[in-house]
Amino acid sequence: xxxxxxxTGLMPVSEALERLLDxxxxxxxxxxxxxxxxxxxxxxxxxxxxxxPPFAASAMDGYAVRHADLDTCPAxxxxxxxAPAGHGFSGQVAAGQAVRIFTGAPVPGGTxxxxxxxxxxxxxxxxxxLEQPALAAYVRPAGLDFKTGEVLLKAPRRLNYRDLALAAAxxxxxxxxxxxxxxxxxxxxxxxxxxxxxxxxxxIIASNHAGIAGLVEDCGGQPLDLGISRDNPVDxxxxxxxAIEADADILVxxxxxxxxxxxxxxxxxxxxxxxxxxxxxxxxxxKPLMAGRLGRTKVLGLPGNPVSSLVCGLxxxxxxxxxxxxxxxDTETEHDAELGADxxxxxxxxxxxxxxxTADRDGRLVATPFPKQDSSMLALLANSGALIIRPPHAPxxxxxTRVKILKL
Length: 408
Hints:
Helix content: 10-25%
Low-confidence stretches: 1-7
Number of helices: 8
CATH class of the largest domain: Alpha Beta
Strand content: 25-35%
CATH architecture of the largest domain: 3-Layer(aba) Sandwich
């Protein structure tokens, strides 16, 4: 830790994240129906229970033939039956014979090639091959896609629609996945009114909980809205106990984590038995960030300012959730961009500056910071394409300088 950070008691972002994630294990596994597995995180490898296709199958509509019968074209063959998908031809095909076949049907015994219907003419039970196809043309061999016992989906993996189709083809009706971490979200403050309410003259509409709940869902967690606690120890303690009773994996508090006269969260959590890991981070927005543990529940106290709350959620809550799901917590990849406007010298805190993100005529990313960066201004965050990362004590920069960004 730099001398400036020691003297101010502010912890670097990287150290705070390392402490937050230390000792955090993945949640347990559960089995869910295939229809409910989209977006879930696979907890165990999945092997195929069958071979696909299970038999040599036709890839086109046409005629199953013996390639040797088509050495000279045009060639006439006797049509002795047909094989639609799901109803294979059970007989054996001899020299000079053919079977009408449709896509997906098993290739009849005695045949080795599919003559596509576009290259034929037919009169009654006689079909004429107009040109010779290659040997084994349009025949899908058994096991072309996969074979029994092949591991095709490996954990950990966030399942998507392609994975679900593959799992279904492997004949799995249910999949083992990580249990969704339950995240209890508690907003605090006498000044807050739920969305849709009628705020008094000194009140505002609560917004942080909606954004944090959306972030939790995007990361694969299950939000639990505990509502709004008033600024008194009894009400706050009652709300905290609801999170413990719900066996939440994470308790996120919004606001009240500082040490002012009206900031009660840290005080009440301490009285409830929380083991405080750290608070106050060398970052902007979001200095008053708190972390600890209350029994088995991880506690993350986010700042009350809306932008601070959401940026801290992205940088700390998201990695915490991903680690609980068995995924890599290192997901916020930094990118290079050109600075679209001058920036002044930075102070001792790592800065995350809201910016638009565009591409110049050469396709290079250009991050242009908004002139105002007040942590209460949600509209700017909603319209940002990136956060410009400014290390502590970074010098002033001119437009055109290369900078590190986080894409939003």
